[in-house]
Amino acid sequence: MGEAPAFFVDHLENGGHTNGFGLKSEPRDKDTSVQIGDRSYLIGGNHEGNPLFLGVQIHDKTTNKWCVSIPTVLGTGPKPCKGYSAIVLKQGRILVIKKGSASDDSIWFLEVDSPFVREQRKLLGKEVVAWSKGVRGNAEKPIVISGPSGVGKGTLITMLMKEFPSMFGFSVSHTTRSPRCMEKNGVHYHFTDKTVMEKEINDGKFLEFASVHGNLYGTSIESVEVVTDSGKRCILDIDVQGARSVKASSLDAVFIFVCPPSMKELEDRLRARGTETEEQIQKRLRNAEAEIKAGKSSGIFEHILYNDNLEECYKNLKNLLGINDDAPVNGVEVEGINLPKEHTVTKIEDKIMIQETGEATKNDLIVLDLASINGGAPGRTRGIVLDSVKSS
Ligand SMILES: Nc1nc2c(ncn2[C@@H]2O[C@H](COP(=O)(O)OP(=O)(O)O)[C@@H](O)[C@H]2O)c(=O)[nH]1
Ligand SMILES: Nc1ncnc2c1ncn2[C@@H]1O[C@H](COP(=O)(O)OP(=O)(O)O)[C@@H](O)[C@H]1O
């Protein structure tokens, strides 16, 4: 796919425009706007009056009007700062650099027409943009684990998180089912009300959701972001319908399906767990057959694990995740680079050159390499390489 032309617009054309949502003044110096096709995206101010969220507004050149409503903003965006640079990338993405910020908070991506945004726009029936934060280093793909109730998904995930606490983090789902006696709100699930959850789904806060065994379950975008922001690899324990939705989204994940050795063993495990009523056990067993069939044949899962002997299965899980005794288990250490407040930005193929300007310039060139980035909203844009090149 061809790359959109990259250029900056310091002030929008057609000054003196009005809009229906209270942009009271002209774009200020610290705001920036970027044009893609017939649309300009003004990045600046704050979102719906909230001083903690950077605002985005859309101006349509063909009608010379601002889009009537503020776009629904998905993902957690950057906090407003002293100024921004922006540049158009491939696939309806805008790279936004916060001026004068530390590297762990300076590189952001605003998706305005990416596959994820298009899908959400269709789903929600409204204008959508989505933020994702640029994360440096070779962060690895999230892991989606599915399988019938009682097969041992939770047990395997607990083992992994216990052995590698700094490497893996669990995406805490929302559910409308009641908590079991040992389950803690916010740790095992966010236990929630059906009407509240349905409203949040409607507001675009969920990466995926599904009705499972008669209850609503879903992964909020925030639950994935919380884990990735902590520098950990995110694990999602979700059903096959949810895995299908994630597969169709822009979240680039590893998909694992866990099978029981037999239906009889599955039933024994469910009973032995002692967390469900007889009626619930029957429902879960009925659903298990269809789930196993879908898990094996849907083409969603690139790995099928049989959980017969637990230790054996755990070892196989670690192997397919590339964890063996010799591999380092911690994330990549990345030292900080501050992005200069006054700078120019140039794009050459996959490289973004950030050159400090102004009197106090040290003439260091910062190079942002986009060649190995992956992921994107929802979640994080990962694998960014940032280097400081001393000028001779
Ligand atoms: N789609 C989707 N499924 C989920 C989510 N969270 C949990 N599930 C699935 O819902 C099913 C029931 O989960 P749960 O009530 O905890 O029962 P358990 O699997 O027997 O421990 C399991 O298949 C989970 O993988 C979610 O956020 N989204
Ligand atoms: N390989 C295994 N052999 C025997 N019991 C197991 C095995 N794996 C898990 N279990 C037990 O089966 C029950 C269900 O496991 P759990 O992790 O809760 O399943 P899930 O999260 O898939 O619903 C638990 O009591 C767990 O201790």
UniProtKB/TrEMBL annotation:
SUPFAM superfamilies: Galactose oxidase, central domain, P-loop containing nucleoside triphosphate hydrolases. PANTHER family: GUANYLATE KINASE (PTHR23117:SF13), GUANYLATE KINASE-RELATED (PTHR23117). GO terms for molecular function: ATP binding; GMP kinase activity. Gene3D superfamilies: Guanylate Kinase phosphate binding domain (3.30.63.10), P-loop containing nucleotide triphosphate hydrolases (3.40.50.300). Residues 140-322 form the Guanylate kinase-like domain. This is Guanylate kinase 1. Its EC number is 2.7.4.8. It catalyses: GMP + ATP = GDP + ADP. It comes from the Eukaryota. The keyword GTP-binding does not apply. Residues 271-298 form a coiled coil. The keyword Coiled coil applies. Keywords: ATP-binding, Coiled coil, Kinase, Nucleotide-binding, Transferase. It holds the Pfam family Guanylate_kin.
